[in-house]
Amino acid sequence: MNDKKLLMLFVRNPELGKVKTRLAASVGPEEALAIYMHLLQHTKQVTQDLAVDKLVYYSNEVKQQDMWPNEKYQKQVQPSGDLGDKMEAAFAHAFENGYASVVIIGSDCHQLTQEIIERAFKALETHEVVIGPALDGGYYLLGMNKLYTELFRNKRWSTEHIFPATIHDIEKLHLSHVVLPELSDVDYIEDLGEDFWGEEKT
Predict the structure, then answer these.
(1) Is 95 part of any domain?
(2) pTM higher than 0.90, yes or no?
(3) In whole angstroms, how far apart are CA 1 and each of 4, 68, 73, 158, 181?
(4) Is residue 161 domain-resident?
């Protein structure tokens, strides 16, 4: 039985003025970059000890010597196209490389935990799709055990329609699925909870 598992992380290269632009409108580009770096560190913290293969997909260039240790994370540049094109190509590549369970996350969810990601992979042992809804109508996690291209096509990305549209496709295809707890992405200043910085910043 093939039990190869892959976690794909879609991240932006942390460059001033190019990350968290909606947030930057409220706090400025420097603070937005600091917040994004904090989100990246959180994402590394909750993924680095997972007992699965891990692949970081960068937005525009691979950094070999950075916060993502090469011994724990494979590294590639995201495929071209819109977000749906990128994710579809990434999933297709993973299944072509022999993975049986593939999960994708972004780097915007400060509430994400290692346990939730482990639950996602566990769900794929008995279900075809797993999805983690975000409060803004998108999703913070998507996993599947074969490529379902319909989930990536004809979507209005970065809108509140993404999660309901994806669930509609999942049900239309009669796929068994698990819905994870609803979490909040960090896109606006209102999304920064009181515990966002933890002990790092007061």
Answers:
(1) yes
(2) yes
(3) 9, 30, 24, 37, 29
(4) yes
